[in-house]
Specification:
DHBP synthase; 15 strands; single chain; globular; 324 residues; Rossmann fold
């Protein structure tokens, strides 16, 4: 059976009702957010969380983000320091996930935390935020794709990976940001970047008035998106490429050609003008197009690692990492 796809713009009331029915029954749905499409299920229901893991083929040690409607809903699950609250007030709803200590009487199930004493929380914008408010409980919503594969930025991407595993996909078109949220761990006054994403680290530092540090790189999984190999197409991925071989797929940035790319199987440019926001929005879709071309190697030109470029390069490195 294939999932029903409902276009929100044409059928918002129906989409709302169908989504609430599925979620209340413990069945995950394909849900658009401003970052990527999520596979959303009731974060307080162990059966729903288990169905998310099973549908994605996701390792149980990889924790999930609890998506909330607002700070008040988050407060029932985690403990905010003054700095964490200031960041939530500045960036929510939006593409910032905060990793905070678990509240004593939380309702998010332990399966979503993978046994950690912290929980990742985010308040998404738009339809997703309104749906969570109406549902009245947090939604666990990892990216709506098979585990380790390229994240979904359209309803069609969700259907390709999960269409035979869920009943409902809500379609809001292509996601505007195109990469997952920035994940920030807040411990008192210390800010640690666990995953770069849709909010630039420099913007967080300006709002917080302090430096964001990078993790020690000890291999601990404290948040989603920290697996070394992730976002992987079938083809191999070569980064900072300067030349291409005949039959390769080429992904450029800023209009910069690769030597020999005239004989490439496909040429895509994340942003001919070098705009990081445009590049982020195109990243996963272009990786999918390059992969679908049949090329054995995807050659990716240099992307500067600043602003949203940090998130783009992070995803590309994980896509290019050796696969277990």
């Amino acid at each position: 059976m294939s999932a029903e796809i409902l276009t929100i713009a044409d059928h918002e009331a129906a989409a709302f009702g169908r989504a609430l029915t599925e979620l209340s029954a413990g069945r995950p749905i394909g849900l658009p957010t401003e970052t990527v499409y999520g596979l959303a299920g009731d974060a307080t229901d162990p059966a729903a969380i288990t169905r998310i893991y099973e549908a994605k083929g996701r390792p149980r040690f990889n924790p999930l983000i609890a998506h909330v409607s607002d700070i008040a809903m988050a407060e029932r699950q985690v403990t905010f320091s003054p700095l964490a609250r200031r960041l939530a007030e500045r960036f929510w709803p939006g593409a910032l996930t905060l990793v905070l200590p678990l509240a004593r009487y939380r309702t998010v199930h332990d399966l979503a935390t993978s046994g950690l004493d912290t929980l990742a929380v985010r308040a998404p914008q738009g339809f997703a935020g309104r749906l969570i408010g109406a549902f009245g409980k947090p939604l666990a919503a990892p990216s709506a794709n098979l585990s380790g594969r390229i994240s979904a930025t359209t309803a069609g991407h969700v259907a390709d990976d999960l269409g035979d595993r869920i009943n409902l996909i809500l379609d809001a078109g292509a996601t505007p940001i195109g990469v997952e949220s920035t994940i920030l761990k807040v411990e008192d006054d210390v800010l640690t970047l666990l995953r770069p994403g849709g909010i630039a680290t420099s913007d967080i530092e300006n709002a917080a008035g302090r430096e964001v540090i990078r993790p020690a790189g000890d291999g601990r999984i404290e948040a989603p998106g920290m697996l070394t190999s992730h976002y992987a197409p079938e083809a191999g991925v070569a980064l900072d490429a300067r030349h291409a071989e005949p039959g390769d797929a080429v992904i450029r940035f800023g209009g910069t050609a690769l030597d020999g790319d005239g004989e490439a199987r496909i040429i895509l440019d994340l942003s001919p003008s070098g705009d990081f926001a445009e590049a982020a929005a195109n990243l996963f879709g272009y990786l999918k197009k390059a992969d679908a071309s049949g090329a054995k190697i995807i050659r990716v030109g240099h992307v500067p690692e600043r602003d949203l470029g940090e998130a783009i390069v992070d995803r590309l490195r994980r896509a290019a990492a050796p696969r277990g």
